[in-house]
Every structure is written in structure tokens, then in C-alpha cells.
Amino acid sequence: MMLVLTAICIALLITIHQLPYWLAFVIAILLIQRVLEFVIVYSRNFILNRGRIFSEFHDMEKRGQWLILMFSLNIIQIILIFAIWYRLISFLDPSAFSSSLNILDSFYFSIVTFLTVGYGDITPLTALPKVLVITQAILTFYTIVIVINGLISIHFRR
């Protein structure tokens, strides 16, 4: 299911500018659910259950491998979802960023924001993209905390 959702996100990133405005907006709203799911599921599994995710694997090495795989797919999906949002905003309002974002630019901006590099070649100029950048930065910090928490809990359970 995770791979299917990742493929759908890639297809949306490529074709979002060809969709009717209302459909693109509805899809962007539905993608909020995926980001909230990420936050809620991992909060519950790592904070409340103290790292007991994939507990059906009794082998700690397999549990760690699944943890890394799932987080990698989640991070890719989050980067793609924000890239879709950035591309949609740039398409609907060309003055929202310092330059109009194509597929590569929106993906690049999402990765640079997620990695907190911030080269400054693309900058948000209006309120909505600024809020999205802030949200992605907070989600990046949250993801790093959750990943470290999960890896440490698996390490100390050995």
C-alpha cells in the first residue's frame, strides 16, 4: 500500500497542472489526511508505546529493517506531498514563489526544505507557501525525533 501511495504521489506531481482547479484542490486537501496519519500513527506507536512498532517481529534485526524501510517510504511520501502542494500553489498563484515552480523545482524545494538546507534560490513570497514551509520544517524536526526514538528503543531492547 505504501508503494502504491508513493506512485500515486509521483503521478500527481507530474500531472497536477493538467487537472481542473477544483479536482487539484480536492486532491491537495485529501493529502492532508496522509500527513496527519503519519503524525498520529507514529506518535501513538513511538511515544505512547515506547517504540513497540512491528512487535510481531521477534527478531530485532528484522524489526529494525522494517522500521528503516517504513520511515524511508514515509519520508519520500511527505516530500512528494509537499512538492505537490508547492506545485499546485505555484500553478494557481505564479507570484507565490520567487519563480514559477515546475516539477523538478517543486520537488527540489520540498527536499531542500525537508533537509533544512535552505539555499534561498526559491523562496515563498505569500502567506500560504510560508505556512507550508513552516509546517514542513516542524514535521522534519518531528520526524527526526521519532526516528531517533525508534532506533534507540530497538537498540536498547537487544
Describe this structure in words.
The structure is a single chain. With 158 residues, this protein is mainly alpha-helical. The chain has a domain at 59-158: Orthogonal Bundle (Helix Hairpins), CATH 1.10.287.70. Helix content is 74%, strand content 0%. It contains five helices and no strands. It has helices at residues 2-15, 21-48, 60-92, 103-114, 127-156. The longest helix is centred in the middle third of the chain and has 33 residues, at 60-92. It is globular, with a radius of gyration of 17 Å. The chain starts with a helix and ends with a helix.
Protein traits:
mainly alpha, Helix Hairpins, 5 helices, 158 residues
Largest sheet: none
Query: For the terminal residues, how far apart are their CA atoms?
Result: 30 Å
The pLDDT mean sits at: 80
Please name the CATH architecture of the domain at 59-158: Orthogonal Bundle
What is the percentage of strand-forming residues? under 5%
Rough shape? globular
Annotation, overall tally of beta strands: 0
Give the C-level CATH assignment of the domain at 59-158: Mainly Alpha
CATH topology of the domain at 59-158: Helix Hairpins
Helix content: over 70%
Structural class: mainly alpha
Question: What is the rounded Rg?
Answer: 17 Å
- Order of SSEs: HHHHH
Tally the helices: what do you get?
Answer: 5
Low-confidence stretches: none
